[in-house]
Amino acid sequence: EPIADSAKVISRMVDLVMIRTFEQTKIDAFAENSRVPVINGLTNEFHPCQILADIFTFIEHRGSIAGKTVAWVGDGNNMANTWLQASEILGFKVHVSTPRGYEIDQSVAGIRSSSSYQVFKDPMQACAKADLVTTDVWTSMGFEAENEERRKAFANWRVNDAMMQVAQPDALFMHCLPAHRGEEVDADVIDGPQSVVWDEAENRMHVQKALMEYLLLGKQA
To answer: Which residue among the candidates 127, 176, 186, 194 is catalytic per the annotation?
Structure first.
């Protein structure tokens, strides 16, 4: 069945739709033909619900994120793209460090300029003076066939204690989970005192409740 037809039928039966899929074009096609709000639960290109939770977690622990620096270490994936979008909207800076061949694409992120982010070849430089250091798995859903190749390419992009040491003294560490200790992050970082991954995970629930309330009522109670 064409996505457009599915959207026209399903949106007559519900008040909200959340879609977790692969290509962004699929959710775009659904939204264009839906009578109700459509939430992007995750696509290959973007992960807005997770970034909402991450930013809420930062605010919960450190206050406003405006003017702060977020270090993204790892794959230039859907999380990285959405951090760039958020930085342009909320007025913070993103330091991005990825292996060659896995860079972010500003055109995919759809941001207007590069003023809200800076690219570093060295992940240590990206982490320097950062208020938040964050990462994701090296192999995202749908790219499992590249796993061994990615392990080799990303070997120097594991978030470790040295990276956290060059960040701000009160810098936080985040990871959207599930995590692979010894791959994208060392155990002493994700399980250490600067890690807020468990609050981050819990906050996905709270932020999505707020999002649904806003979309249904047009306000937050």
So the answer is: 176
